[in-house]
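input
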Amino acid sequence: MSQTETTLRVDVSPDGLSATLVIAPQTPKAQIDAMHVQALLAERGIAVTPMRVAAIDIALASYQPSENPTRVVIAQGQAPAHGQDGAIELLPEVLRPPAPTPEALASARAKKDSHRTARIVSVQRGQPLGQRRQPTPGTDGVDVRGRSIAATPGRASPIKVDASVQVKGDGTLLAAHDGVVELEADLLRVSTTLKLDCVDFSTGHVDFPCDVLVMGEVRDGFRIHAARDLEVRGLIDAANIDAGRDVRLVKGMACPKGGSLECGRDLFAACLNNVTVQVARDATIEKELQDCRLLVGRRLIAPRAAMLRGELMAAGGAELDTAGCESHTPTLIIVGHTPRLDDLAQEIGRLAPKITQQRDDAAARLAELSAQKATSHKIAERQTELRFMIDSATSLATKLCQGCERLIDWSANWTRAELIVRRELFPGLRLVQGPWTLDFHKRIVGPVKFHLGPDFAPLVSDLAVGRTYPASDIAKVSPADRMPDLRHLVATLRGDAKAA
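output
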């Protein structure tokens, strides 16, 4: 082994990305030859390029003998650029609400609504959610010997999306429908159901464009609006509830301070206490109605529930276990009526006498003028005015007649609505059924059914023995004043009230 070989060597790093010239301690500078260093590179399989020749020259020019070995990198490879993993990057605004503006804070303070701050974020159809970044393949490297070093390609994101998220060609993520963004485990989706542990100061008021499911309670003073279905599995305190479709209250709603509930379709509730309720279709109550004002578009179905005090209007009838209470506190049940039809009928009843009076007065005056033998231009003008008044009043009377006839047809669906009481009925109950009002002054044992006969007479059927008898036997019966006699109004508007 020559002296040069003992003083110089070239080490290649384990990854092959660098070659280092190692000079033994105290090696005189005169003993180091650039050509020999190049030969050492070639022996190690490393190509001698102009860049590496320049690196050798610089290393030797700057070399100074030392007590320790001198190490200088004279050749370098290119490390591989490994691929980036795919990822889903969501916009912050779809995960958390924006900070309230000063105007919103001032409005909340002015309204003294400490429940106002909303912490629920919903998205709308077509709203951008974020970006899906595809994995990249990376770029291969090369070692000092010129051999390729393979790059590791990026892995696809483990997070998948379902049909509720649209992915555009550039990776933009869009909501396929209204809802709330959910990222659970390895799935991103837009759920049409907002799931909450409870509704309190941690959530604020809830306003959601689809379904809402509350696993726990709804505290005092909070509002929930669900554009579709709503289910609450805990007890609801004095809150305001509004749903566009069905409502299911598993433990009911008890509101000492008063609450409200609006339901666009059907309602199921375990119990309702001190609540103002409006239901578009059927309402099913499991246990109790107490101190409520309940408006039902079709039927109240509560065969095991007691109605204690309050008011009920059910257009299609009602079924209860108990009606009224032992203290004889007033309780009102109205079947066979709807507020809209009642209001329309009352308005027609108010207008009809005015129109017929105007028509009849004009006709009488016209008859007087026509009977006069003398004529003049002024009389002719007055006759023309009276004929116009008669025609206008007659036209309006015809339209009101048509409205009355439609009301008669519509009300026919509800007039024969029934009330069934399964167990007992207490004094203090007032029942308005179609054209009649029934006031009860003694306890009635059920099961009984209140209905109208073929001639619209109020009847009671004892369902236990199958006997039917007049309602006047057990209640004071009087005409109801909620709706005028529509048939009499039609006759009046047509001008044949006497025949009617």
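quick obs: The mean pLDDT is 87.
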